[in-house]
Amino acid sequence: MAEIWKGAPVAAALSERTAADVAALKERGIVPTLAILRVGARDDDLSYERGAMKRCEKVGVAVKNVVLPEDVDSDTFFRTLEALNGDAAVHGILMFRPLPKQLDGEKARRMLSPAKDVDGCTDGSLAGVFTNTALGFPPCTAQAAMEILKYYGVDPKGKRAVVIGRSLVIGRPVAMMLMHANATVTVCHTRTVDVPSITREADILVAASGQMESVGEAFVRPGQILVDVGIGWNEAKQKLCGDVRFEEAEPVVAALTPVPGGVGSVTTAVLCSHVVEAARRAAARES
Fold this sequence. Notes:
Layout: E1 3-4, H1 8-27, E2 33-39, H2 43-59, E3 62-68, H3 74-86, E4 92-95, H4 105-111, H5 123-131, H6 140-151, E5 160-164, H7 171-180, E6 184-188, H8 195-199, E7 204-207, E8 225-228, E9 232-234, E10 239-241, H9 246-249, E11 255-256, H10 267-286
Parallel strand pairs: 1-11, 2-3, 2-4, 5-6, 5-7, 7-8, 8-11
Antiparallel strand pairs: 9-10
Helix pairs in contact: 1-10, 2-10, 6-7, 6-10
């Protein structure tokens, strides 16, 4: 039976470090501040917002909520975003997406300052991930997967890692982060032939396709570490499920993350750490 690698202790350890960093910045008169830019009131946005605010309060990060109506016009939205970009008191911006259809989501993504893009959606942030440089920040969920590996003592160096999924939100960023950690990485996607034969070769398998319960017994082998990044509501089972069929993988692999309670529970802790790092970088530029 596999070890179940829960996210709660990972988030707690990361939050403890972040709280100490916040205290050190406040001694210098710097209050790390996150602006949450939300249009409308989607249930998933509201749920993440509540979690983010709770985590920010716990570590001492200030939050500025900027809420616009669902039917906000383009000029108002982009003026608001530009004002947040230019506000020196705001160190990080969390912009909920997708935006309503009357707003140009690509324009918003391009306009958001990479220096304040604490959830890694801009081209600048993604460039930083691919070049392994401090330009912007990685997507929080991708880094959460890496934080779990680090917390549980996994050094990717020399290991074979397989990522299922090539999205810019998870798949490609986490693949690059594993590569920067000196793993040998293969990315599987919808056009990959015979995915199970590839995933069974992995030492570290990251399931990030967004296809609920698509990874079963045929995809895994004994000794693997399996990180399940997916999450969705299973109507038949009336519960949240990941990309992995837990009951099939758990008896086989060495360790895996649960859904819920795994990668997702670490993301807000990562978000707060990004805000603090953004504040630190801003202070360094001004000194």
